[in-house]
Specification:
Elements lengths: L2 H25 L11 H19 L12 H27 L5 H29 L10 E2 L2 E2 H11 L14
Antiparallel strand pairs: 1-2
Length: 171
């Protein structure tokens, strides 16, 4: 290939790369995969979760856990179950409210299923404490991501900040 043809190939290659960056930063759609396009559903869900969050705040217990006191561990497990009850009731309520968009009807059941897994993880942790053992809260991982992160991202992107999973069990 002669020098002139090689220069044309280089210029075309650079132009293509510049076009890719321009498209990526200026023209590419910015819609999130998680956004369902039904703001009224998100508003209703946010209100439900905000009420549950307020109920959980009343359950706060900052008592130091003594690993040698089974009664303290059982009390902590009972508080975790009560807090989890608020989450579960909120999710039960949200599940009955069907989004208006097709995307919402497809994604919300997946989010609900992930939340059910997270609720089960919380119940399992409470049972560990109730058995007299100290352990760190371990949540399920989906596609290499902690389930609480998936839940939180969906909640944030649909403007339901209160629907993010409670972080009361994280160290």
């Amino acid at each position: 290939m002669n020098r002139r043809a090689w220069n044309v190939v280089k210029v075309l290659g650079l132009a293509f790369i510049a076009w890719m960056w321009f498209y990526g930063f200026v023209l590419a759609p910015r819609e999130s995969m998680n956004r369902i396009g039904d703001p009224s559903w998100g508003t209703r869900s946010e209100a439900t979760c905000a009420a549950a969050k307020k109920a959980r705040a009343g359950l706060a217990d900052l008592t130091r856990i003594d690993p040698d006191d089974p009664a303290v561990l059982r009390r902590k497990a009972d508080i975790i179950d009560a807090a989890t009850d608020t989450v579960e009731k909120a999710i039960d309520s949200i599940e009955k409210d069907v989004p208006a968009t097709e995307k919402g009807r497809a994604l919300v059941p997946e989010w609900i299923a992930d939340y059910r897994t997270y609720i089960r993880d919380r119940r399992d942790y409470a049972n560990v404490l109730r058995s007299g053992r100290i352990a760190e809260f371990g949540e399920s991982v989906e596609e290499g991501v902690p389930i609480s992160e998936r839940l939180a991202k969906f909640s944030r992107e649909n403007l339901m900040k209160s629907c993010q999973p409670p972080r009361d069990l994280q160290a």
